[in-house]
Specification:
By secondary structure, this protein is an all-alpha fold. The chain has one domain. Helices cover 73% and strands 0% of the residues. Helix 2 packs across helix 3, helix 3 runs antiparallel to helix 7 and helix 6 packs antiparallel against helix 12.
Length: 309
């Protein structure tokens, strides 16, 4: 398996595939909120819906690992507390911010704001890994990337359109995800990536459901056939994307594979424009996407001289 997760063409294909799956989550969730008649201000409903989604995704992975390589499911006593912290951070905390933030912003803007997670990862990697330090290319990339995030938040009247519980939560979700990426890189040693993903999704989702279900109001969510279909798809995309991403993360540098996440805001914005009523690609959104893409490319740019050495 390792040889397929270290070959350049394989890593690129998997990374872009994962990024497109994550990008599709933005319109899927926005449409789900409407289909399930969820009130934007209902925080608990978002927590429960996220918990249901990730519990299903986690169980899908754990059952799959059980039939393919059941020994991979076992973890040592020392790894259990780490998995609990990882589940709380990467699933419960990150998606509390993500689900509630996305409810109060557009799918296109949410996709762009979520891309800040990659830039946070680059900054954190500087302090955690000797071979993944900041340089002038990464500095330019970070400036371009965050400039794109600022542009995405300019309103039609060329004024900043920003609220803590909307765009602010999306940025906090991205920061939490960046911390989770560093944790995953460290924890991947000795744990099968699929098992790691399955356990963290399951643990985090159970925590969300334990907190959310007792407080859930009656008729907070109204499931329809389309609603169930969107729910199942969102669970499947999480299971596939996280498992594949952690697999390539285990054998590759976090900074090097991050460039391919540019496909997330691009696909998220395009799919949101296609499937969410009232959302259209504007010049500001296109400009923001260009700046974010430039940021990704600059961060991962390697001069030929350096490559030859």
């Amino acid at each position: 398996m390792k040889k397929y997760l270290t070959k350049k063409w394989s890593v690129v294909t998997i990374a872009i595939f994962c990024s497109i799956l994550w990008g599709s989550a933005f319109p899927v969730l926005k449409v789900s909120y409407e289909e399930l008649q969820m009130v934007p201000e209902d925080t608990i409903a978002k927590v429960v819906f996220a918990g249901m989604r990730f519990l299903l995704a986690g169980l899908i992975l754990l059952v799959g690992v059980f039939f393919i390589n059941r020994k991979a499911l076992y973890v040592s006593r020392k790894q259990i507390p780490i998995l609990i912290v990882f589940g709380m951070t990467q699933t419960a905390l990150q998606y509390f911010f993500f689900y509630n933030g996305l409810a109060k912003t557009t799918g296109m803007k949410g996709a762009i704001l979520a891309s800040s997670g990659t830039f946070f990862t680059v900054m954190l990697a500087h302090y955690f890994y000797v071979n993944d330090r900041m340089n002038w290319q990464k500095t330019i990339g970070l400036i371009a990337g965050f400039a794109g995030i600022v542009v995405a938040n300019w309103g039609s009247g060329f004024q900043l359109s920003f609220q803590i519980t909307g765009e602010g939560y999306m940025i906090l979700a991205a920061l939490t995800g960046a911390v989770g990426t560093i944790m995953a890189k460290e924890m991947a040693v000795g744990i099968h990536p699929f098992a790691l993903t399955g356990w963290q999704l399951t643990i985090g989702s159970v925590l969300m459901l334990v907190i959310g279900l007792p407080q859930l109001q009656e008729n907070a969510m109204t499931f329809t056939p389309l609603g169930w279909g969107l729910f199942i798809y969102s669970a499947l995309l999480s299971a596939a994307a996280f498992a594949l991403w952690y697999s390539i993360l285990k054998y590759n540098k976090a900074g090097e594979i991050s460039i391919y996440k540019f496909a997330t805001p691009v696909s998220g914005a395009i799919l949101s424009a296609l499937f969410i009523p009232g959302e259209n690609l504007t010049l500001l959104i296109i400009g923001a996407l260009v700046l974010v893409a430039v940021g990704f490319i600059a961060i991962n740019y390697k001069p030929k001289r350096a490559a030859d050495n």
